Amino acid sequence: MSNNNVQIFDTTLRDGEQVPGCKLNTEQKLIIAEQLDNLGVDIIEAGFPVSSPGDFKSVEAISKIVKNATVCGLTRSVENDIKVAAEALKYAKTPRIHTGIGTSESHIKFKFKSNQEDIIERAVKAVSYAKSFVEDVEFYAEDAGRTDNEYLARVCEAVIKAGATVLNIPDTTGYCLPHEYGAKIKYLKEHVKGIDKAILSCHCHNDLGLATANSIEGVINGARQIECTINGIGERAGNTALEEVVMILKQHPYLNLDTRIQTEMLYGISQLVSDSMGIYTQPNKAIVGANAFAHSSGIHQDGVIKNRETYEIIDPKDVGVTESAIVLTARSGRAALAYRAKNIGYELTKLQLDEIYINFLNFADKKKEVNDSDIHQIIENSKVYHEITSA
Ligand SMILES: CC(=O)SCCNC(=O)CCNC(=O)[C@H](O)C(C)(C)COP(=O)(O)OP(=O)(O)OC[C@H]1O[C@@H](n2cnc3c(N)ncnc32)[C@H](O)[C@@H]1OP(=O)(O)O
Ligand SMILES: CC(C)C(=O)C(=O)O
Q: ipTM exceeding 0.90?
């Protein structure tokens, strides 16, 4: 793996599956896992095996069918969780156990009623135990976003010594600002002994809408794995959206960071996840939303018709969207009307267009969105169209 490669760790089937209302059965999870593997994700977090017999079965079944990606199971720093995860992952070609514990003051005090030294001891014990089953052990310091950097560095150092191959630095509560999260990663790179033996990973939540920005700051500052989900789904306000971080790295080549993702599959897999989970994707969602490549105001439409790049920074085909849409509304101008009319076979002269445009605006004010059959009717009902065409 080159030093410029950012590993994509997909947690749609674990953190994404924690979404209230999510309805995914094992069959559907298998279809999604297969598509994630084809998409080129490096790691698929398939579930939390100890949590239920159904989740165990799903992780085991996914382990059997995934061909390329590492398959990962989540655990607490609890022996039985780790043992059960190892069992569920036993058919995976490359298994990973993801274990960890909360490290922030609030987690240590309120969740564990414990102290910092005891937490380090539990973390080390968990990593060592996981290591007795698999080579690849990822450690998460839950709520690292609100954990003091000096203590976090001590935790990281201890778990690297115990054999952790990946250090996950989650902003569990989505609290950090991008410069703070980036500085945290930089601090760990500079202060943790043995850090070169492990990969730093970003796992950012979206409570303040900053998950994507924080993950990007993380990789700019030295992390080389991003944990993310399709459509950004996940606990509460969700996780970093896979399609967003992948396209940011692709569209900003000067960052010199790349992924193995087949970006033309992004739209299809977004639809698959949304349909299978029964979780609707907002139309204005970056990259995969229904309006991400739709233009509905006249000035934009005129620009896009002249040259797509005036209002699009991504070629829709690069993410699997066939073409941009020119949506006709009362905010559209003549360029858009002429373009859509031409698409259905009407070459309008300037005079015809000016006349038909007036009728179009009156119609659009009432109906809001004007479709092909409306355009056809507006044109056919226009006196000037027939006069000029027959002249
Ligand atoms: C930030 C995240 O997304 S973490 C992943 C969240 N996902 C999930 O929680 C889904 C899977 N979880 C489950 O199925 C269940 O919560 C289980 C099986 C893990 C545990 O169930 P229960 O034994 O009934 O415990 P419950 O959920 O009520 O409480 C969690 C317990 O785990 C402890 N715990 C929480 N995190 C950790 C950890 N990383 N390491 C060790 N112990 C932990 C808590 O302190 C609490 O223990 P306590 O009862 O001694 O206070
Ligand atoms: C379990 C960890 C990785 C997590 O989901 C979080 O901290 O948000």
A: yes
